[in-house]
Specification:
Elements (H helix, E strand, L loop, with lengths): L1 H22 L14 H5 L33 E2 L18 E5 L2 H17 L2 E6 L3 H8 L7 E3 L3 H7 L3 E2 L1 E3 L5 E2 L1
Parallel strand pairs: 1-5, 2-3, 3-4
Antiparallel strand pairs: 2-6, 6-7
């Protein structure tokens, strides 16, 4: 009886946990309280609209969606002023670098590429006028996830004003 119960419990746990590990965990960077999973919005449009999980994925112009130009009105390229660590509501699973397509960001990313790769950082391109500008940055860190997206909600929530920066998993910000 006890063995049957243990087998049943083990099966139940595997049944619950396996789908979560097979799908991979999603990470929320900013939540307004009205956030819904993007897959539920894209699913009716078909498989081709679901996000590509590969690290080398490039933004695409699927179904007329073009992420460019990317702009972050609350951030500008510049020198990071000394500041306290961010008080993140949850720990980041990996460091996050915010960069733009300006020359300062390009040089910073080129100089930091090995360290960012070693850390397994995600790169968010917060300013890029077009796909060519994005691809110029992408070539510097081919083994990392590099995605274009405005960082205005992140900047507003945490008082960020400049890029390029690296946000460590514990909230420390550096340049």
């Amino acid at each position: 009886m006890r063995n049957a119960m243990l087998r049943c419990t083990g099966f139940a746990l595997v049944s619950l946990v396996y789908p979560l590990t097979a799908a991979g965990a999603l990470v929320t960077l900013y939540d307004t309280g009205r956030t819904v999973p993007v897959t539920s919005l894209l699913a009716p449009l078909g498989e081709q609209m679901l996000p590509d999980r590969s690290l080398g994925a490039q933004p695409s112009n699927v179904a007329g969606f073009d992420p460019f130009p990317v702009r972050s009105a609350k951030l500008t390229p510049g020198v990071l002023q000394p500041r306290a660590a961010l008080r993140l509501p949850g720990a980041l699973p990996h460091p996050l670098a915010l960069v733009g397509s300006d020359e300062r960001s390009y040089q910073w990313l080129r100089q930091s590429a090995k360290a960012l790769t070693r850390l397994g950082a995600a790169i968010q391109v917060v300013e890029a006028p077009n796909l060519a500008a994005y691809q110029r940055l992408r070539t510097l860190v081919p083994d990392l996830s590099v995605m274009p997206a405005s960082a205005d909600p992140l900047a507003q929530s945490y008082g960020l004003t400049t890029y390029p920066i690296l946000i460590q998993t514990d909230g420390r910000v550096s340049q």
